Amino acid sequence: MSAKNIYHDVVIDALIADGWKITDDPLKLTYGKRKLYVDLGAERVIGAEQNGKRIAVEIQSFLGRSEVSDFEAAIGQYAVYQTVLRESEPDRALYLAIHLEIAEGIFAEPLGRLITSRQGVKILVFNESTRRVLEWID
């Protein structure tokens, strides 16, 4: 299991403030002999007798030397987790959590928009200082 992301607690606070209950920290996925760990699992009860919505959240910090390399790594990791989740927990939606500066940077540029739209990447944008979810992008 890898170390927690520097924004881990920020995203937990943001999700809780947005009405989510953290159910897994981390969310463990097993496929064959391999174990994978998505940063968080959460759920929201929609109604007293309805099934809740379940999500998995992978948090990315983008602190490397190259924003493009960080982007490639994030999209690759997202693709792996998304593929395994579709097999093991098809009712759970995967989101890539990024802070506002990154959302307004490479993710807003033509390259970011092209890749995320073609790959179907769902994004959770959070504000680091307010510890709040700013936007859900499906």
Total strand count, please? 8
- What's the arrangement of strands in the largest beta sheet? 1-4-5-6-7-8
Based on secondary structure, the structural category is alpha/beta
What gap, in angstroms, lies between the N and C termini? 28 Å
Which value, in Å, is the CA radius of gyration? 15 Å
State the CATH topology. Answer: Trna Endonuclease, Chain: A, domain 1
Let me know the average pLDDT.
94
Observed structural traits:
two-stranded antiparallel sheet; alpha/beta; 138 residues; Trna Endonuclease, Chain: A, domain 1
Question: Would you kindly provide a written description of the structure presented here, covering whatever features stand out?
Answer:
There is one protein chain. The chain contains four helices and eight strands, in the order H-E-E-E-E-E-H-E-H-H-E-E. The chain is α/β, with parallel strands linked by helices and 138 residues long. The chain has one domain: 3-Layer(aba) Sandwich (Trna Endonuclease, Chain: A, domain 1), CATH 3.40.1350.10. A hairpin with a 2-residue loop joins strand 2 and strand 3. The relative contact order is 0.17.
